Amino acid sequence: MIRDRLPLTLVIRTAVPAEAPAVAALHARARATYYPDGLPDDGFDWPAAWRAAVERTDGQVLCAVEHGRIVALASFRTPQDGPADTVKLFQFHVDPDRWRTGIGTRLHAACVDHWRAEGRRTAVLDVHADNRRARAFYARHGWTPDRERPPAADDHHLFLRRHVPPRE
């Protein structure tokens, strides 16, 4: 059930490099929710990684902005060694304070619209097996297990696939 109505001020747009620290902070808040012992300190420079993702010419980082604050993000591009009509959703996060408000659904719809406009026919992703909330979200939005890529016995990720319907 959606907790409240989406604000009229919600804007979905392309992220800019200067927003990398805010994007990285949102990413950390969201990821921390599905690690039982808290977010591991891997020493990785997430702000630099997000800046690089935003600056890529072969990908896109969309963000949902509410009252000037980034509250959700999605990062996608053509996967390495993948067909040109396939897109991989690498990251999709909603601020935990904004879960169940419809923001994720709106951002997901914007992603699908973008993929459709680019002529993509298939979208793929991998999700952490312990992230039940994300798995349920993806299932509600048409993602199914990827039969072409079953998980290995020791893998902590599940691979999902979604058809991108053509423009009508």
User: Cα distance, first to last residue?
Assistant: 30 Å
Structure summary, number of beta strands: 7
The average pLDDT value, as a whole number, equals: 90
> What is the CATH domain class?
Alpha Beta
The second-level CATH architecture is 3-Layer(aba) Sandwich
- How large, in whole angstroms, is the Cα Rg? 16 Å
Strand content: 25-35%
Number of helices: 4
What is the name of the CATH superfamily? Gcn5-related N-acetyltransferase (GNAT)
* Helicity range: 25-40%
As laid out across the biggest beta sheet, the strand order is 1-2-3-4-5-7-6
| Domain module tally | 1
Shape: globular
**Helix-strand category:** alpha+beta
Question: Uncertain regions: pLDDT < 50 for 5+ in a row?
Answer: none
Encode the helix/strand succession as letters. Answer: EHHEEEHEHEE
Task: Classify the fold: give the CATH topology.
Answer: Aminopeptidase
Biggest sheet features: 7 strands, mixed
Give a verbal description of the structure:
- The structure is a single chain.
- A hairpin with an 8-residue loop joins strand 3 and strand 4.
- This protein has one domain: Gcn5-related N-acetyltransferase (GNAT) (Aminopeptidase), CATH 3.40.630.
- It has 168 residues and is α+β, with helices and mostly antiparallel strands.
- The chain is 28% helix and 27% strand.
- Helix 1 packs across helix 2.
